[in-house]
Amino acid sequence: MGNIQKKLTRRSEGGKRPERGAPRRGRTPGAGADKRDRPRAPAPAGGGRGAGEPAAGASPGPAAPPPGSAAPMGPAALKSQGNELFQNGQFSEAALKYSAAIAQLDGSAADLSILYSNRAACYLKDGNCSGCIQDCNRALELHPFSIKPLLRRAMAYETVEQYQKAYVDYKTVLQIDCGIQLANDSINRITKILIALDGPNWREKLPPIPAVPTSTQVRAWRPAAETGACMNNSTFCVCSIDENVFKTLKEEGNQCVKDKNYKDALSKYSECLKINNKECAIYTNRALCYLKLGQFEEAKQDCEQALQMDHGNVKACYRRALAHKGLKVRKPSFSYVRVISEQITCFR
């Protein structure tokens, strides 16, 4: 009983229970100190955000770059990185660098042409011939008659077996610089392919070969009969861009004559004259073919052309007389023909 009475007495001592929100017993109003009696720091405005956080509704300022981040690279740096990747055989990665440089570059046609040409080289290495051709086209629009885009486009055309277009590009390269061995070798190879595919008249199916301005030519070709020799120095070299092709076609024509295949021989000699029309022997050899095929007027014209170069050429005189005979034209040269007819060979 005594304990129950004490509890009832305590409840009645203060009257009613303290209301909600009233300070607890034992704490002074405004107690803002911690256990060590140090005042607490006031809460930041804005509902408990940290000191570095913006208040609600505040417009965010420009974001500061993360520490240690590098500034964006320009076209020159991207191109340099692309070159290094290309040399290391990372062609896809190099193409991405060149693409980024192209996107940034503005205004310089020459530099942009180089970037397109470089990316074309990456595409060619990766087997993307259509991409290579497109980039070479862009490069050549910006810088016409640039050797590297022409060579790369020619190689891409050859890879996809567009031999006529490849031939035209290689020939254009050789008009600019006749000393590029890759182009010379490719011309020899593609010529044989085109003869096999399109026959003796394969040149008629070629697209037009553009004429290269003299100002663009580095080492130009001149016929040997006009120059007499090949001059070599640091700035200029006169040499035959088609010397190997000419020799090959002439030998093939001679072999066709031996095989009595005069039609093919005629085609071979005609190809030789398109390369070099200053060699007398080609006219006399072709005249023989015309005679064998009964084309006496054409044979006579070739013999006269040969005699303009060499007035005493025995073969030209003899074959012109045979052409006159076929045309039933009497000339005083027939007596001369009888004397020498057994002393000359068919061709050189």
Q: What does the secondary structure layout of this molecule look like, with pairings?
A:
Blueprint: H1 2-13, H2 75-87, H3 91-104, H4 109-125, H5 129-142, H6 147-159, H7 163-176, H8 181-198, H9 224-227, H10 243-258, H11 262-275, H12 280-292, H13 296-309, H14 314-326, H15 333-340
Main location: cytoplasm
Biased composition (Low complexity): 52-61
Keywords: Cytoplasm, Repeat, TPR repeat
How does this structure look, described?
This protein has 348 residues and is mostly helical. It contains 15 helices and no strands. The chain folds into two domains: 75-227, Tetratricopeptide repeat domain (Serine Threonine Protein Phosphatase 5, Tetratricopeptide repeat, Alpha Horseshoe), CATH 1.25.40; 243-340, Tetratricopeptide repeat domain (Serine Threonine Protein Phosphatase 5, Tetratricopeptide repeat). It is elongated. The relative contact order is 0.04.
Which second-level CATH architecture of the largest domain applies? Answer: Alpha Horseshoe
Reading the helices and strands in chain order gives HHHHHHHHHHHHHHH
The name of the CATH superfamily of the largest domain reads Tetratricopeptide repeat domain
* Name of the level-1 CATH class of the largest domain: Mainly Alpha
Count of helical stretches: 15
Shape: elongated
